[in-house]
Design a protein that fits this description.
alpha/beta, 12 helices, 35% helix, 15% strand, globular, binds pyridoxal-5'-phosphate
Length: 407
């Protein structure tokens, strides 16, 4: 099968770049987006035939991906992630049972949806013959890069803030990446990757600084559309850091619309951030096109501790076009919500995922949505990758055990 990629396009100016060359940002320093020959796809494929049934997980959307053949796929067993309706916890959140659905991305390789983006980025890097990739990360992106780069036999160098959850750092290192802790935040790590480009010769795979991670994240939109039988929810709650997933899903919906396969109203895109790092929320509230750098970013939801996002204007565009909004939630609310959903329904979310559930509660209170509306919350990583409360109940095997206590 041939690729349907036409070219790359600067997301700010629309200037076109050839797809068969290696790119980071556009000449204007903006993210590049992949454009496809949708007319040709429409002629040759249909809504019922465009998916490649034989391909695993999101690779089934090959027609709208830049990796055009199975041999170029770098794969670790990607799966279609399940939709799980909240049960008892939806009562606590204030919604109606059946209307709050979690898309659990923690089931992907390396335990997070970063696998989607990095699988695509590494596959393309492999196709282009790149030998060394580098990334700034709050943990999950580094883990996904490390794993896929090993599969592709490409060297990976990873820089994390020194307070990144331990398990993430250990995972990255164990999966073969050269791993460094930096006494700063993700944007400080990003500066090191940028500045090292010339001297080391590595390729920068930072969020939106190469064109293909977003194509991988886009598959969340395709998957959701298929899983919901082409009838999308009223709103999508997305924990927003660099925003690749939100921008990617919006791009997916736009492509399916342009193909004429997806009709009807699109979901409100609701960006969730922590009150400890909410640059997008601020920019949205103030009607700005770009967000301002957030000082002293701090939150337990490490995946969304992103003080500055290069694609901020794309996130804000998608939110506004969709009639959505951006909401900030307190860390305490995030953790209480994680604990509550775990205890009520046995579904252990990551803090970022729990933030979307907390954000749902706020959206209800603010009447941004109502309880009759169907919503999808994105749980972007396995809850197991984060610190959890200790267990402190003990039994002394040498004393008489009071069995009534277990009843
Ligand atoms: C990276 C990450 C996010 C943020 O995703 P973006 O698409 O970069 O905004 C949210 N949650 C988790 C668990 C992450 O790893």
């Amino acid at each position: 099968m041939q690729s349907y990629v036409l070219h790359l396009e600067c997301s700010k100016t629309g200037v076109i770049y050839p797809a068969d060359q290696i790119h980071n940002l556009s000449d204007d320093g903006m993210p590049l987006l992949v454009r496809y020959d949708l007319k040709k796809i429409k002629e040759e494929l249909s809504k019922d035939s465009w998916c490649m049934e034989s391909a695993p997980g999101f690779w089934r959307y090959q027609a709208l991906l830049p990796v055009s053949n199975a041999a170029s796929r770098i794969s670790l067993g990607e799966v279609i992630t399940p939709l799980i309706p909240l049960k008892k916890s939806s009562d606590v959140l204030g919604g109606k049972q059946g209307n709050i659905i979690v898309k659990d991305e923690g089931r992907l390789p390396t335990g997070s949806f970063k696998a989607r983006g990095l699988a695509l980025a590494v596959s393309m890097a492999h196709q282009f013959g790149l030998k060394h990739l580098a990334i700034p990360t709050n943990g999950n992106a580094g883990a996904a890069l490390a794993a896929y780069a090993r599969q592709a036999n490409i060297k990976a160098t990873v820089f994390c803030p020194d307070d990144t959850p331990r398990v993430n750092v250990q995972e990255i290192q164990l999966q073969g990446a050269d791993t460094y802790l930096v006494n700063g935040l993700i944007n400080d790590c990003g500066k090191i990757v940028l500045e090292g480009r010339k001297q080391v010769g590595w390729f920068d795979v930072s969020t939106l600084k190469e064109p293909y991670r977003i194509e991988g994240k886009k598959t969340m939109g395709f998957e959701l559309t298929e899983q919901m039988n082409w009838s999308l929810p009223d709103a999508i709650f997305y924990p927003t850091g660099g925003g690749t997933g939100l921008i990617g899903m919006w791009k997916a919906f736009a492509e399916l619309k342009e193909l004429g396969w997806l009709t009807g109203k699109l979901p409100k895109m609701i960006a969730i951030q922590s009150t400890g790092c909410a640059p997008i929320v601020n920019a949205f509230d103030q009607g700005l096109e770009h967000a301002r750098l957030w000082d002293n970013a701090q939150t337990v939801a490490s995946g969304i501790r992103v003080p500055a996002a290069i694609g901020d204007f794309l996130i804000l565009d998608a939110i506004r076009q969709s009639d959505g909004c951006a909401l900030a939630v307190e860390d305490e609310h995030i953790i209480n919500t994680r604990d509550m959903i775990s205890k009520e329904d046995g579904l252990l979310l990551c803090p970022e995922g729990a933030a979307t559930a907390a954000g749902y509660q706020i959206a209800l209170e603010k009447k941004i949505i109502n309880e009759d509306e169907k919503v999808v919350l994105f749980n972007c990583a396995s809850g197991l990758k984060y610190p959890m409360p200790d267990s402190n109940q003990t039994i002394d095997k040498n004393s008489v055990i009071e069995y009534s206590q277990f009843a």
